[in-house]
Amino acid sequence: MVLVYSDNKNITIEMLSKAAELAKETKKKVTATIIGKADENLAKEYISYGADKVFIAETNLKDFKAEEYADILSKIVKETKSEIILVGSNKNGKELAARLGGLLNAGCIVDSNNVYMKNNKLLAERIVYSGNAIAVNQFNSKPAIVTIPSKAFDPLKKDTSRKGEVTKKKIDGEKSNSKIVKVTEMKTGGVNVEDAEIIVSCGRGFKNKDDIKLVQELADVLKGKTVGCSRPIAADMKWLSEEHWIGLSGHKVKPKLYIAAGISGQIQHIAGMRDSGIVVAINKDPDALIFKSADYGIVGDLYTVLPKLISAVKEKMG
Q: Where are the domains of the chain?
């Protein structure tokens, strides 16, 4: 059995495509897991995206606590006899997977961008050394736990005609002594670079914070309206919040169009946008690393290029 779990619906749907591939190779079934309130509509949606079964673990837990969720998930793994476990690699998922590995005495690979079978062994690839190399890890025991980041895999085409089995069972995890005192939702200002189809990003090539309006204007005329940035803009100068930060330590994105203005193209930034569809780079340095990752490059001063590009796009789009 290939088991899939994340508290993020989109990541679950993305992982289901890889789970279906692994299940076909190992001649197993795919089980998607829901922990918490029974949601049969969500279960049906998971089935339409490739799950053969959906296991709903009904609990009274109001907040996520890794200790308790790991205990619940370990019971599900044992009951379903799952040999491959894919967990969404967000904040909760990483902590959950590590604890689950401890409970099951199982190997755990974090932030894998590819998982596949070879010679009846499960292999997981992950980017290391700030994107300079790819490590290939082989599991020699079962179960095997792999965390998958957002955008690693494209979801299967939704098929509402698919049939699957939904199992609901009351499962209580072992109570933890830790207490959640307060949960405060982080304010993002409506920015969601991870789901954007068009992103215009700015980097250290901008001289002043107010100049970022050029990037915003280009994003607006492209109907993208999403602005990204490299690490210095968010972490060092704090001209934009971290919700805009794209890179190895920021957000990983996969837009159809990515425009990088004034970004040199250090490997940490490339690691966050390397899966973009079309990449356009604007930089006055013809030797900038960003051009090696770009489909189209414009060598020139961004303060000259951006206004002309904005004007050209406006004219083209009427």
A: 2-170, 193-316
Q: What is the pLDDT of residue 200?
A: 96
Cα–Cα distance measured from residue 113 to residue 149, given in angstroms and rounded to the nearest whole number: 7
> How far apart are alpha carbons 131 and 153 in whole angstroms?
18
> Sheet containing 165-170: which strands, arranged edge to edge?
107-109, 144-148, 84-88, 2-5, 30-35, 53-58, 165-170
Tokens of 8: 């993020």
Q: Are 183 and 63 in contact (CB under 8 A)?
A: yes
Q: List pLDDT tens digits, range 268-291.
A: 899 889 889 999 999 999 999 999
Is the model's pTM score more than 0.85? Answer: no
Nearest to 265 by CA among 238, 298, 235, 287: 287
In one letter, which amino acid is 287? Answer: D
Q: Which residue has the tokens 């789901």?
A: 195
Question: For the domain 193-316, what is the CATH superfamily, name and number?
Answer: TPP-binding domain (3.40.50.1220)
Q: Are 222 and 312 in contact (CB under 8 A)?
A: no
The values of phi and psi at residue 248, to 5°, are -60, -40
Spatial CA neighbour of 257 closest among 271, 274, 278: 278
Q: Residue 284 burial (CB < 10 Å; 0-12/13-18/19+)?
A: middle
Which amino acid, one-letter code, is at 281?
A: A
Question: Side chain identity at 137, as an amino acid letter?
Answer: N
CB of 211 within 8 A of CB of 303?
yes
Give, for 40, the enclosing helix (H) or strand (E). helix 40-48
Low-confidence ranges of the chain (pLDDT < 70): 130, 186-190
- Euclidean distance between CA atoms 34 and 159, whole angstroms: 20
Q: Which superfamily, per CATH, for 2-170?
A: HUPs (3.40.50.620)
